[in-house]
Amino acid sequence: MQTLSVELGDRSYPIHIGAGLLDRADLMLPHLAQKRVAVVTNTTVAPLYLQRLTQTLTAAGVAVHPIVLPDGEACKNWETLNLIFDALLTWRAERKTTLIALGGGVIGDMTGFAAACYQRGVPFIQIPTTLLSQVDSSVGGKTGINHPLGKNMIGAFYQPKAVLADTDTLKTLPPRELSAGLAEVIKYGLIRDADFLAWLEANMDRLRSLDALAIAHAIYRSCEIKAQVVGEDEREGGIRAILNLGHTFGHAIETGMGYGTWLHGEAVGAGMALAAETSRRLGWLSAGDVARARALIRAAGLPDAAPELGLETWLDYMGHDKKVESGKLRFVLLKRLGEAVITGEVPRDVLAGVLAAPR
């Protein structure tokens, strides 16, 4: 097991990465204010891991209440969120009752948001079971739900007490979901670590075959970069926005196509390709740099081309992006491979050219 920390003063917390962590009650017990937990999961993950986690906790004297939600991005909404509150109130969960998110990014985001809201704040622990959630969404405290007009537009910054990334859970991940997670891994190399980017190019086959050492390294380095950025800027007032490379385009794809049609990582993959091309048209990247980024995205099994939405539709959905400031779109682009920049200076004709370029 490897452990690193998100440094946020008295709200700092550990990220544990390794195999067999679902069996490690000792990693969870220090973070429980009382021996009562509600485990929030979904219909896909529950048959795989809920019983195992429940056995681990009950053997340690913890009372477990399962909350099983419908699966999918299309269910990341008020109605599903309210199912969590219904269960917590029925069970008479208290302020010291800990919520445990057992699942991917949708479960983690909704459980965290529920924890932030229930009785004005209860503790929660993240146990991410997808690569995307292990390297990205479980770390940093962003929680929320979707709205028909924009993804993740309703939520709160609310940090977990701990993150347990059990790499064994990736063995049951469908290949498409594994590829979706690799999009976020690639993102870290593009925004802040050119050496890691080169390592990904050399080891993508190992990652897609779930080589244990390669996966562990990719998760650790991704979490390390995210922890550093979150420690510098918890609430995205500045540098943290670089973690959204590809997301302004990607969220527009998800919203425009209908939540769940494209996986989040697939949309981010195409979005990163668009961000790279935008960077080239602004004179920052070379054609070779863009080709290199696109090749890595494709090697991960991801699309490097976006669907046709139409310029006005693109602009409408991107206008709901959380980085919009004073009505002006801001983008995360690349000054060079391994260095991201946040800018609001993207001329409309440049953006139109990128979005109209042949797919």
Pick out its properties.
359 residues; alpha/beta; Rossmann fold; Dehydroquinate synthase-like, alpha domain; 2 domains; 4-stranded parallel β-sheet; 3-stranded mixed β-sheet; 13 helices; 11 strands; 46% helix; globular
Major sheet description: 4 strands, parallel
As laid out across the biggest beta sheet, the strand order is 4-3-5-6
Structural class: alpha/beta
Radius of gyration: 20 Å
Describe the model.
With 359 residues, this protein is α/β, with parallel strands linked by helices. The chain folds into 2 domains: 2-172, 3-Layer(aba) Sandwich (Rossmann fold), CATH 3.40.50; 175-356, Dehydroquinate synthase-like - alpha domain (Dehydroquinate synthase-like, alpha domain). It has 13 helices and 11 strands. It has helices spanning 25-28, 46-59, 78-90, 105-117, 131-137, 175-192, 194-208, 212-232, 247-257, 264-281, 287-299, 311-318, 348-356; strands at residues 2-6, 13-18, 36-42, 63-69, 98-103, 124-128, 142-147, 150-157, 163-166, 331-336, 339-343. Helix 2 links the parallel strand 3 and strand 4. Helix 7 (194-208) runs antiparallel to helix 8 (212-232). The longest helix has 21 residues, at 212-232.
